[in-house]
Design brief:
CATH architecture of the largest domain: Sandwich
CATH class of the largest domain: Mainly Beta
Radius of gyration: 21 Å
Strand order of the largest sheet: 1-3-4-11-6-9-12
CATH superfamily of the largest domain: Jelly Rolls
Oligomer: single chain
Number of domains: 2
CATH topology of the largest domain: Jelly Rolls
Helix content: 40-55%
Shape: globular
Structural class: alpha+beta
């Protein structure tokens, strides 16, 4: 297996490689499965007897991960339990240069051919059967797309034709530049990728979108108010409604796809608490973190946290402390990270 450790020349982007080349064929898929299991559960048909190969070439642009994947035919799945457990609030944008897949993204059936681009929401379930493929993939946090697009119905959306060709050209040009791109220019590259993607997807949504431009602005005002006031134990719908400048009925419609206003607020409180618990520099008691994010009861916080993530706040903090400490007691060096370590770091920073 080629060196999976990040490579970084002075001033350029962190870069990591993974490959099953040189591994015994009997072990290649199992090692790949372990590496990709931080996001997807991968499997192969029992009758598959061809030699499996996979490789990843990835660049860390700070808020966005840009990767090239090549892999043999396999099934990818992401279950509701996996989404609750890791809390990833990201989209995977896939350009299939060759190969393709078919599957189900939530309730939406889709089939992707070479040259087409899919948008997959990691907060929602997914099952796909992929052919032997060569792809480019972006891992983008939701908060980068939300100001530009209604993200609730993007899961399984596919770009085809001219829109896909334009984005493909942009990604291929950027891929050629990434090895020498100065790290200080990463925000420029991220902004260009996100804004171009939104500009190409937005016209596709106009035909069936339920959100008007005015509704999107109102939703953005409501979300911003909620984020700024999560410390309040009583975050009343009336206050949110006033900040969004909409009627109460309109407010409930805006958050209907998120499970309602109360559910959205609870989810944001829990996400903020999870971030704090995963931060080794945050020494506050669990109860202090809960109260600081609007929970009136530590018991209620612990129950809600376990229901969403499948473990208690104390278990999460213990796990993160163990992962952040090497035998010598010092934090791990970024130079020792592998590709799956990068994904875990994105999971911990999910907003």
């Amino acid at each position: 297996m080629t060196d999976p450790k990040p490579v970084r020349t002075h001033g350029t982007l962190p870069h990591t490689r993974f490959s099953t080349a040189g591994l015994p064929s009997a072990d290649a898929f199992d090692i790949w499965h372990d590496a990709i299991s931080v996001v997807f559960d991968a499997s192969r048909e029992a009758a598959a007897d061809d030699a499996f190969q996979a490789e990843v070439d990835a660049f860390d642009l700070g808020e966005l991960l840009f990767s090239r994947f090549a892999f043999g035919a396999q099934r990818f799945a992401r279950t509701p339990h996996m989404a609750r457990r890791d809390g990833m609030d990201h989209f995977v944008i896939h350009l299939y240069r060759s190969g393709g897949y078919r599957g189900e993204a939530g309730a939406r059936s889709l089939e992707l051919a070479a040259g087409e681009i899919s948008l997959l929401d990691l907060a929602k379930p997914l099952v796909t059967q992929a052919h032997t493929s060569d792809t480019l993939a972006l891992l983008i946090p939701r908060h980068l797309l939300e100001p530009l697009l209604p993200t609730d119905d993007l899961h399984g959306h596919v770009l085809r034709g001219t829109a896909a060709a334009l984005y493909c050209d942009h990604l291929l040009a950027l891929q050629r530049r990434l090895p020498t791109l100065p790290a200080c220019d990463a925000p420029i590259a991220v902004r260009a990728m996100v804004e171009l993607l939104a500009g190409l997807v937005r016209p596709d949504l106009h035909g069936d979108a339920t959100h008007t431009a005015q509704q999107e602005l109102a939703l953005d005002r409501a979300r911003r108010y909620i984020e700024a006031h999560l410390h309040r134990s009583r975050l009343a719908p009336e206050d949110i409604r006033a900040a969004a400048a909409v009627s109460r009925a309109s407010l409930y419609r805006l958050f209907e796809s998120a499970g309602g206003v109360a559910h959205y607020v609870l989810t944001r409180r829990l996400e903020r608490c999870r971030q704090a618990l995963e931060n080794p520099r945050d020494r506050r008691l669990i109860s202090e973190i809960a109260y600081a994010h609007g929970f009136a009861s530590e018991a209620h916080f612990c129950r809600a946290f376990r229901q969403r993530y499948g473990l208690t706040p104390g278990d999460l903090r213990a796990r993160e402390c163990a992962a952040a400490t090497q035998p010598g007691g010092s934090p791990p060096s970024a130079s020792n990270d592998t590709f799956d370590d990068w994904i875990r770091r994105f999971q911990r920073s999910a907003a």
